[in-house]
């Protein structure tokens, strides 16, 4: 948190992202979550950021993780998966913690089904990155680094 310490970033993967690599590979690609996490950790290190990664399929657990980031993390990258489109509770948690959050989607949600075109979390995030596959996470880290 202090200027002397490395900035700390929490990366949150929401529901079904544990199945990356086998889930709808035509949309999300063949990389597993472990591969992607390794790339995230590598990029974070390159940027001089401390990084922790968390995945959960449960709305409440994601909210609890956001809450416990208070006082510990300087920034959050979040792919809230399908919760993006309807979880007012996750939206409120992001607003409550007052830590800059970057919304991430691997797919271009605006080019898919109508129900994916609305994000309830976007208005409380510092910015959103969509449609670049696993690179969406990397671009988000770059953006967050400059924000912090
Ligand atoms: C996603 C897009 C969401 O609409 C979907 O429910 C996901 C993944 C993405 O990364 O493209 O689970 O967040």
UniProtKB/TrEMBL annotation:
<feature type="active site" description="Proton donor">
    <location>
        <position position="105"/>
    </location>
</feature>
<dbReference type="GO" id="GO:0008652">
    <property type="term" value="P:amino acid biosynthetic process"/>
</dbReference>
<feature type="binding site">
    <location>
        <begin position="106"/>
        <end position="107"/>
    </location>
    <ligand>
        <name>substrate</name>
    </ligand>
</feature>
<feature type="site" description="Transition state stabilizer">
    <location>
        <position position="23"/>
    </location>
</feature>
<protein>
    <recommendedName>
        <fullName>3-dehydroquinate dehydratase</fullName>
        <ecNumber>4.2.1.10</ecNumber>
    </recommendedName>
</protein>
<keyword id="KW-0028">Amino-acid biosynthesis</keyword>
<dbReference type="GO" id="GO:0003855">
    <property type="term" value="F:3-dehydroquinate dehydratase activity"/>
</dbReference>
<feature type="binding site">
    <location>
        <position position="79"/>
    </location>
    <ligand>
        <name>substrate</name>
    </ligand>
</feature>
<keyword id="KW-0057">Aromatic amino acid biosynthesis</keyword>
<comment type="pathway">
    <text>Metabolic intermediate biosynthesis; chorismate biosynthesis; chorismate from D-erythrose 4-phosphate and phosphoenolpyruvate: step 3/7.</text>
</comment>
<dbReference type="Pfam" id="PF01220">
    <property type="entry name" value="DHquinase_II"/>
</dbReference>
<comment type="function">
    <text>Catalyzes a trans-dehydration via an enolate intermediate.</text>
</comment>
<comment type="similarity">
    <text>Belongs to the type-II 3-dehydroquinase family.</text>
</comment>
<dbReference type="InterPro" id="IPR036441">
    <property type="entry name" value="DHquinase_II_sf"/>
</dbReference>
<dbReference type="GO" id="GO:0009073">
    <property type="term" value="P:aromatic amino acid family biosynthetic process"/>
</dbReference>
<dbReference type="GO" id="GO:0019631">
    <property type="term" value="P:quinate catabolic process"/>
</dbReference>
<dbReference type="InterPro" id="IPR001874">
    <property type="entry name" value="DHquinase_II"/>
</dbReference>
<feature type="binding site">
    <location>
        <position position="92"/>
    </location>
    <ligand>
        <name>substrate</name>
    </ligand>
</feature>
<dbReference type="InterPro" id="IPR018509">
    <property type="entry name" value="DHquinase_II_CS"/>
</dbReference>
<feature type="binding site">
    <location>
        <position position="85"/>
    </location>
    <ligand>
        <name>substrate</name>
    </ligand>
</feature>
<keyword id="KW-0456">Lyase</keyword>
<comment type="subunit">
    <text>Homododecamer.</text>
</comment>
<feature type="active site" description="Proton acceptor">
    <location>
        <position position="28"/>
    </location>
</feature>
<dbReference type="GO" id="GO:0009423">
    <property type="term" value="P:chorismate biosynthetic process"/>
</dbReference>
<feature type="binding site">
    <location>
        <position position="116"/>
    </location>
    <ligand>
        <name>substrate</name>
    </ligand>
</feature>
């Amino acid at each position: 948190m202090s200027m002397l310490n490395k900035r700390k970033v929490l990366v949150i993967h929401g529901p079904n992202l544990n199945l990356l690599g086998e889930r709808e590979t035509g949309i999300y690609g063949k990389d597993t979550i472990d591969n992607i996490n390794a790339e995230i950790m590598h990029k974070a290190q390159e940027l001089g950021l401390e990084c922790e990664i968390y995945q959960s399929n449960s709305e409440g657990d994601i909210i609890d993780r956001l809450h416990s980031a208070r006082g510990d993390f300087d920034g959050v990258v979040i792919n809230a998966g399908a919760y993006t489109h309807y979880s007012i509770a996750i939206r409120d948690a992001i607003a409550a913690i007052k830590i800059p959050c970057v919304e991430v989607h691997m797919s271009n949600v605006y080019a898919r089904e109508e129900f994916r075109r609305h994000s309830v979390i976007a208005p409380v995030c510092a910015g959103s990155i969509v449609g670049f596959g696993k690179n969406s996470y990397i671009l988000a880290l770059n953006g967050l680094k400059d924000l912090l």
